[in-house]
Write a structure and sequence with these properties.
This protein is α/β, with parallel strands linked by helices. It has ten helices and twelve strands. The strands form two sheets. Strands 1-2-3-4-7-8-9-10-11-12 form a ten-stranded mixed beta sheet. A two-stranded antiparallel ribbon has the order 5-6.
């Protein structure tokens, strides 16, 4: 079977050169403990082996190249160049408690066309490879940042990318990133086959479902995927997910002014989540302030009073709800804002 990650390729190179088993450990420790980002700098390896690695993989361990960094108070957005002269973005969020969280991309663009999402206006250019997904995280590690948690909430729909599951293997491999499943979150618009596979293979990974409207007709207008995977079917899968994993499921709900932020929407969201069984307390709604973009001029952020009323309705119905803290919208690093462009032609390559 063809190797899908650089780590598998390294193992193949070592086997082909009849190297002892400890060489792989030396290389992974060089990357993940000593934070060495170039094969040529791994002086614990014999020169012929370093040469073979450079010849077959290139000198740089990472497949993504930082192009631009933009910072705001608690968020930093990084633009990476990837193969094919494409661009993707990742965001680092720094919480005052000292926790660092990373929002990484799974696709270059997105083909699902959610009307309010900037990334969706790009269309899908391509899936990211295993290395391109995990190397966004590796960039931060090599630069000395702690990897506390990671979410696939950047550009693209993670569960539509068949490479995601190999990327999750790399991230949870104790010899590599060594992240516990519970420190990883996968967000989806409701791709049922991917959700089912995630439940089977990575049952402890956190799952977030982007709902954004409790009404099928409106959700289909906002999110065309609803025609293929309607709310009812997705909710049945989420019920199974909770029953089998015992894990909380998050319902993401972007508040769009005058569209989905009224009392009837709040009542319908509560109705959707109540009466699902003894596990219904494991549903948690995250209300997300909308982040406006030039690419999506028809949508605006709900005012605070509407959000407050929405919260009150849900709480009165016994639904757990949090209003998501807004980070990074001033540098277009917020939810739905990632577009993968340099801010001006002068900074492009």
């Amino acid at each position: 079977m063809k190797p899908t990650s650089k780590y598998e390729k390294i193992q193949h190179i070592l086997q082909s050169l009849k190297q002892p088993g400890y060489r792989y450990k030396q290389i992974t420790e060089a990357i993940f403990k000593q934070r060495i980002g170039e094969y040529e700098q791994m002086h614990m390896l014999p020169q012929f082996l370093r040469h073979a690695l450079v010849e077959q993989l290139g000198n740089r361990v990472s497949s993504v190249t930082p192009v631009l960094e933009q910072r705001s108070e608690q968020a930093s957005k990084f633009l990476f160049a990837i193969a094919g002269n494409e661009r993707v973005e990742a965001v680092r969020l720094s919480y005052k408690s000292g926790w660092d969280s990373y929002c990484i991309s799974s696709q270059c663009g997105c083909g699902f066309g959610c009307r309010f999402c900037s990334t969706g206006t790009m269309g899908l250019k391509r899936h990211l490879t295993v290395d391109e997904m995990t190397d966004q995280l590796l960039y931060f590690h090599l630069n000395g940042y702690a990897l506390d948690s990671v979410s696939f909430m950047g550009m693209g729909e993670a569960l539509a990318n068949p490479n995601l599951f190999e990327a999750l293997k790399v991230m949870t491999d104790p010899r590599l990133f060594g992240l516990g499943q519970r420190r990883i979150t996968v967000s989806t618009i409701g791709i049922l086959p991917g959700m089912q596979r995630l439940r089977r293979e990575f049952p402890q990974v956190n799952l977030t479902f982007s709902l954004h409207s409790p009404f099928d007709e409106q959700r289909s207008a906002l999110m065309p995927i609803n025609e293929r995977f309607p709310i009812r079917d997705v909710m049945e899968e989420l019920d199974k997910h909770i029953q089998e994993t015992g894990r909380k499921v998050y319902i993401a709900y972007i508040m769009l002014r005058g569209m989905n932020d009224g009392a009837e929407h709040a009542e319908a969201v509560a109705e959707l989540l109540r009466g699902r069984g003894t596990w219904e307390h494991l549903y948690h709604v995250n209300l997300i302030p909308y982040n406006a973009t030039e690419e999506t001029p028809d949508y605006e952020q709900s005012d605070r009073e509407r959000v407050r009323s929405f919260v009150q309705v849900l709480k009165a119905r016994g639904i757990q709800v949090t209003v998501r803290t807004q980070f990074g919208s001033d540098i277009q690093a917020g939810c739905g804002q990632l577009y993968g462009l340099e801010p001006s032609p002068s900074s492009s390559e």
